[in-house]
Amino acid sequence: MQDSPVIDQGKANAFLAVGRIVVVGASDDAKNFGFPICQALIEHGIQTVAVHPQAPSSGGAPCYPDLASVPGTIDGVIVMVSKERSAEVVSQSIGLGIRRIWLFKGSGPGAVSREALQLCEDHGVDVIAGACPLMFLGPVRGVHRLHRTFRRTNRSLTKATSG
Fold first, then answer.
1. d(CA 87, CA 129)
2. Helix (H) or strand (E) holding 116
């Protein structure tokens, strides 16, 4: 099992179209990349909920302390915590019956860990591992477009079969 499997752009696009998405690790902290992820999802019309154990809000919306506290249906989870904590979030997601998980990775270490990937595999969870959602929310611009192009060039990202 690779730490960062090849990303299927079609699966990434399908994840972002799934419905209500929770971003675990989002807050109003400008140093926290979860905030711009939440904002971009919301700007694209995606129902988005933030989870952070200490933050009261993200972008003016309330943050819930954990996944179990989020009311309503959760269709997918974007994990924006360290790889040392990602398996815990994946385990909580699985326990709540969530079948779609995105393990974030930008330019830093990200949330991808062997343990988190193994949990997803063992429980039949659809996982996007090792990419930033901003590479897929069109129109893709700036560093995200460059990152997507680089990932296609090194063959760690497939092209979408449609669009």
1. 12
2. helix 114-122
Alpha helices, DSSP H, located in the chain? 9-16, 34-43, 83-95, 114-122, 142-153
Strands 21-24 and 48-51: parallel
Residue 138 has pLDDT above 90, yes or no: no
What's the DSSP call for residue 6?
A: P
What is the total residue count of the chain?
163
pTM of the model: 0.88
End-to-end CA distance of the chain: 30
d(CA 107, CA 61): 27
d(CA 62, CA 69): 11
> CA–CA separation, 7 vs 42, rounded Å?
23
The DSSP symbol for 133 reads: G
The three-state secondary structure class of 76 is strand
Q: What is the pLDDT of residues 53-89, one digit of tens each?
A: 998 888 888 899 999 999 999 999 999 999 999 999 9
